[in-house]
Design a protein that fits this description.
- The protein is mainly β and 267 residues long.
- The protein is built from 2 helices and 21 strands.
- A 6-stranded antiparallel β-sheet has the order 1-18-15-20-13-12, with no helix packed on it.
């Protein structure tokens, strides 16, 4: 019988901080911390006046801005952008980016994923509001694809009060038999993680890692919940174990308040 002991829960607010050149580094997920095989997750604090230079090398890197400090910027591909909350950059092998915390400390969620085998990339396929930073199967309203790799699937999730995922389980595929490294990082609001008959409340700043094959559900607890979901590599099979009255559907973010929801075209 699966239990809450089968998952790893790491509080980024109390995790050990290592002093580095750009400020501080907290390791939230790694083979040593949560036994993930294809994923390392760090919370990086770039100190005021410091910079973080990221060179992807042979791996994929996804960096997500967790706050909106004054004058912070992200430089990528010859252009500079405001480093506001929710901004992110996906670096494929060989690419680089620079984060500059000119006016105040800048917090960044940093995910590192090794390059997947060809069989995973060959699998590129033709509820809640979900805003992905990296997702190969989803097309935007203009028909363009968000990313062209299955190395990582990651993005924002927002649950209204009382919202929850279905109770479900992720397993491997022939291309990725070990299954995907899968975790949630909560930002705003409180949540409740359920595994089997057990549950645990989690506060903002908590990372929860789910080994492949462990069924689970995440609920908003006491209000709304904003969190970040990560799966690497993006080759896995999901089985829904609970019955959801509205089904499992995803929608584009509304173009303006009150506009009708448009279901994602995932073809």
């Amino acid at each position: 019988m699966p239990s809450i002991q089968d998952i790893s829960i790491i509080d980024s607010n109390t995790a050990s901080a290592k002093k580095v050149e750009h400020g501080f580094e907290r390791t939230l997920c790694s083979p040593e911390v949560c036994e993930s095989k294809n994923l390392n997750v760090y919370k990086r604090t770039i100190a005021k006046g410091k910079q973080l230079d990221v060179k992807a090398g042979k791996d994929y890197h996804l960096l997500y801005v967790m706050n909106t400090p004054a004058k912070a910027t992200v430089s990528f591909n010859g252009q500079s952008h405001a480093a506001e909350e929710g901004a992110g950059v996906l670096l494929v092998p060989g690419e680089s980016a620079k984060f500059d915390a000119a006016g105040a400390d800048l917090d960044v969620l940093h995910m590192v994923v090794p390059k997947p085998p060809a069989a995973v990339e060959d699998g590129l396929p033709g509820g809640p509001v979900r805003r992905f930073c990296a997702e190969s199967s989803v097309r935007l309203l203009d028909g363009s694809r968000l990313t062209s790799t299955n190395a990582i699937q990651a993005g924002e999730m927002h649950y209204n009060k009382g919202g929850a995922s279905p109770y479900h389980v992720h397993k491997g595929t022939p291309a990725n038999p070990d299954g995907a490294a899968h975790c949630y990082m909560t930002f705003k609001g409180r949540g409740k993680v359920e595994v089997g008959e057990e549950s645990q409340e989690i506060e903002p700043g908590t990372l929860v890692y789910f080994p492949p094959g462990v069924p689970h559900r995440l609920r908003a607890h006491g209000g709304t919940l904003d969190y970040f979901e990560i799966q690497a590599w993006r080759s896995f099979k999901t089985t829904i174990l609970s019955e959801e009255p509205l089904g499992l559907k995803w929608y584009y973010e509304r173009e303006k308040p009150g506009a009708a929801l448009v279901e994602w075209n995932q073809s």
